[in-house]
Amino acid sequence: MAALLLLSSLLLLSSTPLQAQQNITLNSSLAPQGPSTSWLSPSGDFSFGFRPIEGNNTFYLLAIWFNKISEKTVAWYAKTTDPDPVLVQVSSGSRLLLNSNGALSLQDSTGTEIWNPQVVGASYAAMLDTGNFVLAAADGSTQWESFKHPADTILPTQVLTPGMALRSRIIPTDYSNGRFLLDLQTIGVYLYTVAVPSGYKYDPYWSMAVNTTNLVFNPTGMISIGNQSEITSGVIRSIADYYLRATLDPDGVFRQYMYPKKASNQSNQTWSVVDFKPPNICEAQLTNIGSGICGFNSYCIWDSSNNQSICKCPDQYSFIDDERKYIGYKPDFQPQSCDLDEAAVMTQFKLTLVSLVDWPLSDYEQYSPITKDQCQKLCLTDCFCALAVFHYEDNTCWKKKIPLSNGKMGDGVQRAVYIKVRKNNGTQSEIIDSNKWKKDKKNWIIGSSLFLGSSVLVNILLISIIFFGTYCTITIKELPSMQSSNNIGLPLKAFTYTELEKATGGFQKVIGTGASGIVYKGQLQDDLSTHIAVKKIDKLGHETEKEFTSEVQTIGRTHHKNLVRLLGFCNEGKERLLVYEFMTNGSLNRFLFGDTKLQWNIRAQLTLGVARGLLYLHDECSTQIIHCDIKPQNILLDDNFTSKISDFGLAKLLRTNQTQTNTGIRGTRGYVAPEWFKNIGITAKVDVYSFGVILLELVCCRRNVELEAAEEDQKILTDWANDCYRCGRIDFLVEGDDEAISDLKNVERFVAVALWCLQEDPTMRPTMLKVTQMLDEAAAVPSPPDSTSFVSTLAQHRSCILSY
């Protein structure tokens, strides 16, 4: 009862009749420069208006800040009202106007509106002493308030409800959306790392899961979830003597601060931390995707004396950007080339021990049992390996590659970590002291003679090279040969044809066929007897050679958990081969349509994996990749049933300034989007369509076309799924699947996402980012349109689908 009374008092306090405040009348305005740049609260504690961005005299925030303290700390700043709100920045010629219609409008120097709180008819505005800026009706009721649209900070009396969130800044002086999110849900409060700039949520690194509806910052200084659990226990003895705020800081820690209101020398005062969550963010964070708390190739150290996280890097590594350290670290040396033999590697590289530091993820190879020396050698001679981890208790070795993620330092690290760096050896040419030449005339004469002789020799060599190069250029132009493997310029192993012929036993065991070649199983003759899949391209037309080069260059630059990894290639004479990691469980096709059926929860995880792989290809590569042939046969499964997209032979690359491409029909019947049959541009949305088909196949565990189906309306899966969804009988799609039947809510969500992906109009289909968010429940799934065009289009293309 006491807690309910407290909550009621908070709500009353936040909705006190505004007539007692210093109201801002209609037709009032502010400008970044001039006599009126802000509106004050009655006490002058808070100010609302234009605030210059630190270190930038050109742009301003529309913000609320603590006005009486020297730091002028910002507590709120305007963002757009888009699904993923972004920072609003304005130049000196902008203006904020509360117009005669009761609408608040922020306009740039040209008069174009760039922000408004989407409220019309307000009678006045007010900056309250609570730090809340409001637009109010004539009766004093609140029509809009900044408390309901927080940025990175909450203040006493502020209440967050489910669906509201705090987003950290990217760095203290840049108010753009940062890497951390406090998300209030109906089941509790969660702290996430997020992908910048998309806002995609990785795994939570701290949470307090309780059944509640509100997060409350009460006037005593305590922050709690409803009336159940305290998030911070920072009760201040005399609340009247301190300013309070709680901020999700750029380092991902949610801290509660206090600042003395009365002090003899305000310039010497600063915000002090009252409480914070999580207690040690370096230990709390672990995400399968993303860098973790610090940037890639760095590690996090928790400084308990200052309650701060510190990001550091190994020797011979440095920040990519000293100011934006979250971007990560880069090696200061040229990475190991895969062309080096073992002797050269031993001469140029070494492994150094990094004490009490661990990067728990990024493993790509594991050995056990094994010795420490063997572990180090395996990493040192592997051009992919950047770091080796050895566990003494069970004699286990892990190899990791760049980028390293989730790094941390702590006394609890019980494994030996060895990082690969260049040797600081003394093999450089000897530097000769010029003073010695001056002191020794004989040496000077000898040195001059050597220099002149060397110059003559160099000139002769240069002339020879020019003539030889000209001859070679002419000769090469006459040969219809493809560029040599050495010119592809990728960190991949260049295999000889003999090596791969031996590894595959003369190309005997076929494990798959594709549009551009046959895939064979093989085993390398290395220390680990590595199993491989070798794709042999048999046709050697000009377009196929082009396709081979494109595929090598494309896959060599990609790296993602849900993409099949390319290990190397062979480009010898007329032979073109690609060497992939071998996927133990084969293709998804085998488990969807064969005798062995996958459980519903495994199918759901496979769906997410495919979605994330496509998201990487579409949005996260430096060059966008459209796969063009997404189907179960091109989705492979490793021994942990992780889904990985394969076969980029049909990938169509787009330059960064392109949005679509025109090409002939590509893909496999049943999975091709309608636009393939029309004379319109092809975009990444063709992959979204194909994914929608696969999503339905994963839900229903059947092929998208089954001509032998007993019922006519069930022959085309996309038609049948649409009918079942509209009739509210999703259970028909998973009949006989008890696990899926018990999870019909998620089954329905997956089907709805699939129907969005299958829209005829490509612009109506969501992006793979949106698809992933809907599948992850990070975004709501609205009911997909049931337009007549959707059903008619599928009917129109049915003959195409069956005959193509």
From TrEMBL:
Pfam families: B_lectin, Pkinase
GO biological process: response to other organism
Assigned keywords, A-Z: ATP-binding, Disulfide bond, EGF-like domain, Glycoprotein, Kinase, Lectin, Membrane, Nucleotide-binding, Receptor, Serine/threonine-protein kinase, Signal, Transferase, Transmembrane, Transmembrane helix
Protein kinase domain span: 505-779
Catalyzed reaction equations: L-threonyl-[protein] + ATP = O-phospho-L-threonyl-[protein] + ADP + H(+); L-seryl-[protein] + ATP = O-phospho-L-seryl-[protein] + ADP + H(+)
GO cellular component, one term: membrane
UniProt domain Bulb-type lectin: residue ranges: 15-148
Compartments in which it is found: Membrane
Record EC number: 2.7.11.1
Residues reported to bind ATP: K536
PROSITE patterns with a match to the protein in the record: BULB_LECTIN, PROTEIN_KINASE_ATP, PROTEIN_KINASE_DOM, PROTEIN_KINASE_ST
Coiled coil: none
Signal peptide: 1-20
Main localization of the protein described in the UniProt heading: membrane
Any GO MF annotation of the entry: protein serine/threonine kinase activity
Membrane topology of this protein: Single-pass type I membrane protein
Family named by the database record: Belongs to the protein kinase superfamily. Ser/Thr protein kinase family.
Protein name: Receptor-like serine/threonine-protein kinase
Taxonomic source organism: Panicum virgatum (Blackwell switchgrass)
